[in-house]
Amino acid sequence: MGVGVRPVSATLILGLLAALSAGERAPAALVTLVPPQAEGVLTQAMLLEGVDTALREHSSLELRSAEQLGLDAGALAACPRAELLGCITAHVASRARVSVVAILAVVPQGGRRYRVSLSLVDLAQAEALRARASSGLEGRAVLEDGLFAEAVHLEPATLESPTAEQLAGWVRASLPAQPGEQPWRTPLASLALRGLEVSASLTIDGVGYGLVTPDDPLVHELRPGSRRVELSTRDAEAHALVALVAGQEASVELLWMERTSPATPQRLRVPLAVAGGVLALGGTTLAIVSGLAAGSVTTRCVVRPRDLSEASCSGLGGTGVSVASEALPTLDASSVRQGPPLVPVGVAAAAAGLALLALETLAYEHERPLWLELTVVLGAGALAATVAAVATP
After folding, report:
1. 363 with 258: CB under 8 angstroms?
2. Closest among 34, 267, 294 to 167, alpha carbons compared
3. Backbone angles phi, psi at 314, to 5 degrees
4. What gap in Å lies between CA 40 and CA 167, rounded to an integer?
5. Are 122 and 146 in contact (CB under 8 A)?
6. Which of 42, 162, 187, 283 has the least CB density, counted as fewest CB within 10 Å?
7. CA–CA separation, 138 vs 148, rounded Å?
């Protein structure tokens, strides 16, 4: 009996991935046991679509094919029948991160009739049983019995020319009515957002779910329970605590509150204004002193000895000093050391101080957050430093 791993259609794969990214479903692996002579009729895409459609309605699972999960078809096909559940779950656990392994077996009954059976094995339970099982043939037999006892088995059925719709109908009718203890047996819930007039960013329990719009205010595939819902726009925000019930749609009426940015406290305005004045005065002084000092530097006495047999330099008070050429200092690229750009630093400090002083005195009546004022001040300083650096190379 072979394992069906025929390629899934691109449309189906894209649809599955889109659904996964939109909700809170748990991934599950679908392993199909289909004889080679039936693979041309019962395609992997059809089997996956039929079982997945029904499980989405009655559980939190989302099926993926063996090919999508990168499972080894040869290894799955080689699993001995006496250890089928243990072998398949061990292979899936080593290759993929899923919650459940769904094993769909198909047996031809003659003509176009096929007998189908489905077993759902919780992978966490399987690994716990495997950890407790002893090695050897007897241990593997005990593990197989334990896996069979813990798995969810659907009542087998015989279908004539099976289609995806027939498979989905059989799964719906055969799933046990009571969800059981496994978390994945509980269907997901939906949430309708009432009072949504503009597009808003949705966050549930601190996890972002992207943008919701007034045209589609329904959020699907959410885990049931008490959930904290937050929506925010540029100008307003809403918060609500809602109880989601499995398999049902809940609604919440949004009460919007205007979003306000914390303004700079009044007690900080005087100290900030004083700091701006001091910064402006200090920066101006530094720029002037640094500019005068830079203008007094001369390089006339730094020449190459071969250019002049004798050179003279102006000493203190304009007195000429004659020096021998071999005593003159020489200059090469390795001896050049550029000092700190004190003029641009002083100009930047003066501009930042003036900007801060203006914000806290001339424009004090306008409410602004502190971060905005600091951004303006730093921007003014950076712009002034750039202009000063270009003007004084």
Report:
1. no
2. 34
3. -85, 125
4. 17
5. no
6. 187
7. 16
Beta carbons within 10 angstroms of residue 353's beta carbon:
23
| Contact present, 63 and 99 (Cβ < 8 Å) | no
Q: Measure the CA–CA gap between 156 and 214, rounded to whole angstroms.
A: 45
Strand order in the sheet with 249-253: 218-222, 189-194, 249-253
Cα distances from 207 to residues 198, 203, 230, 231, in angstroms, run: 20, 5, 10, 11
Between 385 and 242, whose confidence is greater?
242
Is 381 within 8 Å of 345 (Cβ atoms)? no
Distance (Å, whole) CA 23 – CA 360: 49
Q: Is the whole model's pTM more than 0.85, yes or no?
A: no
3-state secondary structure of 388: helix
274-305 in b/e form (b: 16+ CB < 10 A) is eebbebbeebbebbeebeeeeeeeeeeeebee
Domain 189-258 fold: Immunoglobulin-like (2.60.40)
Q: For 63-72, 170-179, 297-306, which range has the lowest pLDDT when averaged over its residues?
A: 297-306
Work out whether strand 157-160 and strand 152-153 pair parallel, antiparallel, or are unpaired.
unpaired
DSSP state of 12: H
1 pLDDT tier (thresholds 50, 70, 90):
very low
Q: Quote the percentage of the chain above a pLDDT of 90.
A: 24
- The answer to whether the Cα torsion of 368, 369, 374, 380 is positive or negative is negative
Concatenating the DSSP letter of every residue in 33-93 gives E--GGGTTTS-HHHHHHHHHHHHHHHSSEEEEEHHHHT--HHHHHT--GGGHHHHHHHHHH
Looking at the DSSP assignment, which residues form a beta bridge with residue 106? Answer: 116
Angle in degrees, CA 369, 375, 378, rounded to 5: 145
Report the alpha-carbon distance of residue 113 to residue 132 in Å, rounded. 41
pLDDT over 70 (residue 204)? yes
- 278: CB partners within 8 A, 6+ apart: 353
HSE-up of 188 (CA within 13 Å, CB side)?
A: 21
How do residues 25-66 score in pLDDT, each as one tens digit? 889 999 999 888 777 778 889 999 999 999 988 888 889 999
